[in-house]
Design goal:
The chain has 220 residues and is α+β, with helices and mostly antiparallel strands. Helix content is 26%, strand content 31%. It has one domain. The strands form two sheets. Strands 5-6-2-1-8 form a five-stranded mixed β-sheet. β3 and β4 form a beta hairpin. It starts with a helix and ends with a strand.
């Protein structure tokens, strides 16, 4: 029950815009984030974290701009940074909406230490690195990762496969394959039935999530 309350609070932080834009679609999802990712490598060419870039949709951006306008019609940078910190603090219990796995087992992550945020083409963006508790070698196992809101209140997706980026060192012997989501008809019906005040089951978002699977030459 506590976890569901935390998820609802997290959703409320992102979707307070709904009160401002009452004509938004009622079914899940309510907001959209365009995603880019990049595994971050250490000096031994192991994955030590995942860089995540979010480009928020115009509706959420509109709310942020409205709340953070200065008298000179600029953006209050301190408020913008405070929003980013608040979002990340609320996301920590949910692994920042990331799911990193090696040979099917979920990898432990550490706390995000730094982030950047700003505006691009009129939309709010945020970039942060989710560190692994221990680095892993993707060539010795099947490494995969996904980024999703577990309740599917927010849709987080790559607009194109190339947004699942790799460093040159990793791309030399690995490639990132984006596995598209294949939700069941039951999952689609459930998402459509959930209104903006409802919290879906924590298993719903993964059904709509793309997953990147790293295929490296040293691991058939």
């Amino acid at each position: 029950m506590v976890r569901h309350s935390q998820l609802l609070a997290m959703a409320t932080l992102f979707v307070i815009t709904l009160a401002v834009l009452p004509e938004r679609i009622q079914a899940h999802p309510h907001f959209w984030i365009e995603l880019e990712t990049r595994p971050v490598m250490d000096s031994a060419n192991r994955v030590k974290g995942l860089e995540v870039y979010w480009l928020f949709d115009l509706f959420y951006t509109a709310f942020v701009v409205k709340e953070m306008r200065t008298e000179g019609f600029g953006i209050d940078e301190e408020k913008l940074l405070a929003l980013g910190r608040s979002n990340l603090e609320n996301l920590r219990p949910f692994d920042y909406f990331t799911d990193l796995r090696l040979d099917g087992g979920k990898l432990e992550i550490a706390t995000v230490e730094r982030f950047e945020t700003g505006f691009e083409a009129g939309k709010l963006w945020m970039r942060f690195i989710v560190p692994l508790a221990e680095p892993i070698d993707p060539r010795t196992g099947r490494f995969s990762y996904a980024v999703f809101d577990p309740t599917y209140y927010i849709d987080i997706a790559y607009a194109e496969p190339a947004q699942a980026r790799l460093d040159d060192a990793l791309a030399a012997d690995c490639r990132a394959n984006v596995e598209e989501a294949a939700p069941t008809s039951e999952a689609i019906s459930l998402a459509q039935a959930l209104d903006r005040g409802a919290t879906g089951p924590e298993t719903l978002g993964e059904m709509f999530a793309q997953r990147v699977r790293l295929e490296c030459s040293q691991h058939p």
